[in-house]
Design a protein that fits this description.
Length: about 375
């Protein structure tokens, strides 16, 4: 369903009056409490993998189902900070949306939208970019990691965390469920919110990162357990994707890098490869690592890999089929993204208007009249 202009205005008015009430309340009580709102994003650079699922998306679904106000973005503008094939990018946007739906994101309960459809993200990004320094951005670990992979560093890669700040602040989010790799980016978001509030008055909540416990918040690459599982890793065998077939899963588990000790013990420091497999097993079954080790006494790592593969195959197969089902209905995915953009746009426009006004960019009715008067004087 596409919202009509009338309906959009109605929602905008409703939202404005709610915000105004909040602002009035904020003047009345010194300690202002922002309404709880969740925002997070995922890049459509490839298929969603187990690190994304357990590190972030599972939490997204839980928060949605707990009735929280949740907004989730397909962060396509972030994905073009490194070169993307346009055809792949387009189909990845559809595929990641289909995967999120299959994982349980419900467009009636969440706002699910494509970032580039809302121009206020880049407008706020520019505004926030004027409040931070190049030195501060150069120290962010995700920038250091990604810039090390390219010869010529694109400006977008440098500015990436500011765009992420704009994503979150545009919706005045209070909580941001992410994997551990994002915590430094979140510190920048908090820093920018504070700078803006100090300079222009109370405008943004200071959002908190919601990070899963340490074993989940950074699942490791199957090929090199010293690295995180990642969409951008060259070798597809380094990650298990939600859309992998049972054969892919078996192959990837068999090829997972372990070590020369044969029994199954959980020691993330000394045996990171085996520990990573046990963690995945534990996440899918709810068993704790000690129970898993006990259940698999007597197996060597080669045979244990087959056990893990079977657990993953069984859990992922229904999801994979659901993704395929959604992918066979591209109009439905389009409709979901249209509805999401309509809803996101209402909030984004409201915040941007507030920001523009505070920064002095907004020519409102009053100042427009002054301008006409001074124009007359000139003529
Ligand atoms: P990205 O793939 O970079 O768009 O990440 C989307 C979300 O998944 C972010 O919240 C990341 O922190 C999270 N994430 C990505 N890789 C991992 C991983 N290996 N382990 C845990 N969480 C991850
Ligand atoms: N930077 C995040 C990542 O690489 C994706 C992202 C974009 C995001 N905008 C966001 C995450 C806003 C949380 C909030 O994984």
């Amino acid at each position: 369903m596409v919202l009509t202009v009338g309906r959009r205005l109605h929602i905008l008015n409703e939202y404005s009056s709610r915000c105004l009430k909040q602002v009035r309340r904020s003047h009345a009580t010194e300690t202002f409490k922002w309404s709880h709102r969740v925002f997070s994003g995922i890049q459509p650079t490839g298929s969603m993998h187990l690190g994304n699922y357990f590190g972030a998306v599972q939490k997204w679904v839980e928060m949605q189902n707990a009735g929280e106000s949740v907004i989730y973005s397909i962060a396509d503008l972030h994905s073009i900070t490194l070169p993307q094939d346009p055809k792949h990018l387009h189909s990845n946007i559809l595929q990641i949306t289909a995967t999120l739906l299959a994982c349980g994101i419900d467009p009636d309960k969440s706002i699910l939208f494509q970032q580039s459809r809302i121009p206020e993200h880049t407008q706020l990004c520019w505004t926030l970019g004027c409040l931070t320094t190049m030195a501060r951005l150069a120290h962010i670990p995700t920038y250091k990691e990604k810039s090390a992979t390219v010869k010529e560093v694109p400006l977008g890669l440098y500015v990436y965390p500011v765009l992420q700040a704009a994503d979150i602040l545009l919706y005045r989010a209070t909580h941001v469920p992410v994997g551990e790799d994002q915590t430094h980016n979140l510190e920048l978001v908090q820093h920018l919110a504070k700078i803006f509030n100090n300079r222009y008055g109370h405008t943004f909540p200071i959002p908190k990162a919601v990070v899963a416990d340490s074993s989940i918040s950074r699942l490791k690459s199957l090929r090199d357990p010293s690295k995180k599982m990642s969409k951008s890793e060259q070798d597809p065998k380094s990650r298990i994707e939600i859309t992998d077939t049972p054969d892919d899963i078996l192959e990837k588990c068999k090829k997972a890098l372990t070590d020369f000790t044969s029994e199954i013990t959980f020691d993330p420091e000394k045996r990171p490869g085996v520990a990573n497999l046990i963690t995945i097993h534990s996440l899918f079954t709810g068993l704790d690592p000690a129970e898993i080790c006990e259940q698999n006494i007597g197996l060597d790592t080669g045979r244990y890999k087959l056990v893990v593969a079977e657990v993953i195959q069984e859990k992922l197969e229904p999801l994979r089929q659901q993704v395929q089902q959604y992918m066979s209905e591209p109009q439905y995915i389009e409709e979901v993204l249209n509805r999401g953009a309509d809803k996101a746009s209402v909030i984004a426009q409201q915040t941007w208007l507030d920001v523009k006004t505070k920064v002095g960019l907004q020519i409102n009715e009053g100042s427009y009249r002054c301008l006409q008067v001074s124009e007359k004087r000139v003529m």
